[in-house]
Amino acid sequence: MKVLLTGAAGFIGSHIAEALRASGHDVVGLDSYLPAAHGAQPAASTRFEIAGQPVHRVDVRDSAGIAALLGGVDVVCHQAAMVGNGVDVADLPEYVTHNDFGTAVLLAAMHAARVSRLILASSMVVYGEGAYTCTQHALIEPSPRTSTDLDQGFFEPRCPRCGRPLSWATVSESAPIAPRSIYAATKVAQEHLGHAWAIQTGGQVLALRYHNVYGSRMPRDTPYSGVAAIFRSSLERGQPPAVFEDGGQTRDFVHVEDVAGANLAAIQNIDGAVVTGGLRAYNVCSGQPTTIGEMARILSAANGGQDPVVTGEYRAADVRHVVASPERARQELGFSAQIGPEDGIAAFAHAPLRA
Fold first, then answer.
1. Of 50, 134, 166, 181, whose CB neighbour count within 10 A is largest?
2. Does the pLDDT value for residue 46 go beyond 60?
3. Can you tell me the mean pLDDT for 113-122?
4. CA atoms of 119 and 208, how far apart (whole Å)
5. Which residue from 131, 13, 119 is spatially nearest to 73, judged by alpha carbons?
6. Contact between residue 139 and residue 129 where contact means Cβ atoms under 8 Å apart
7. Residue 180's pLDDT is what?
8. What is the model's pTM?
9. Of 232, 244, 238, nearest in space to 311 by CA
10. How confident is the model at residue 157 (pLDDT cuts 50, 70, 90)?
């Protein structure tokens, strides 16, 4: 198939481009080269290549530039976005214009070009808190964590009915949407835009909700970097990774090569996917939950650096546990992650990062 890939020069997009081309797909790549992901803006005359093919310097907000690349395209794989939690609320306009307005421009151009298939990069952040169970009250929504508990070093969410500490459960794609950051809100909006577009046009959207992605070419030392890259940078400076809370926060760390594999599976199976109402969401995860503390220990050991330091610091808005269920992607797309966190995180200790 001919695939238009947005964000093709980015951390995840570049791996997707390689995976698609290795599988025989014709990839047209574009990227706007946002400074948050690529550093200072390159000269306009600079030529960029991924997997030996040019990446067009086009912004998804440029309707004419997008339209010029959509000829003969079978499916769009939309990765372009501002990512991470940003710095503060002042980032809000930039997130909305790049992520949501950009997606709206792309969808309108797709309709005009009669391109009806979209693979959308979404995120686990749309869930907010993960799923929790109480020994007395089964599956239940947790109470907000209080400053009293957090100051005393008690970090687990409590049951709103009996006050007991809760245990995490896996989150399925049918879990409620509850964004808790600007970035998360823009990802929810992208899904909603895609859903509305699909209903109105008869298109198909597969939204891939990435969990904590790591791997080679991750950007380092920016407010938008993932925790794995932040810990890696600390080790390279001769400092131990600083782990917040007690290190028991649970996540699903999924290798970027597996994320590329999920996109390949989605593109190859989009016509057979169970698309209800125009959009179908899939968790993209390893299926092997890991705590932040465990991840830091694996990384430190592989790097030969200092052991992590558990600081007890906290951010009140942080979620405690988000652990995904990989079953829908396995059953409907035939996708299962191949790189477990133990091996993948150890290899990441020496993987090249993006400056």
1. 166
2. no
3. 98
4. 7
5. 119
6. no
7. 87
8. 0.94
9. 244
10. very high
Other C-beta atoms lying within 10 Å of the C-beta of residue 12: 22
Q: Give the residue carrying structure tokens 């907010």.
A: 128
User: For residue 203, is pLDDT > 90?
Assistant: yes
What's the pLDDT score for residue 40?
A: 61
What was the pLDDT predicted at 91? Answer: 85
Please count the CA atoms within 13 angstroms of the CA of 238 that sit on its side-chain side. Answer: 0
Query: Residue 83: what pLDDT?
Result: 83
Look at the block and give the residue holding tokens 């895609």: 194
Residue 286 has pLDDT above 80, yes or no: yes
pLDDT-based confidence at residue 184 (cuts at 50, 70, 90): very high
| CA separation for the pair 178, 186 (Å, rounded) | 12
Q: For residue 312, how far is the Cα from the chain centroid?
A: 26
For residues 105 and 88, what is the distance between their CA atoms, to the nearest angstrom?
Answer: 26
Contacts of residue 162, defined as CB under 8 A and 6 or more positions apart, other chains included, come to: 134, 136, 137
- Of 115, 117, 105, 122, residue with least CA distance to 65: 105
* Cα-to-chain-centroid distance, residue 113: 28
pLDDT mean across residues, the chain: 92
Amino acid at 343: D
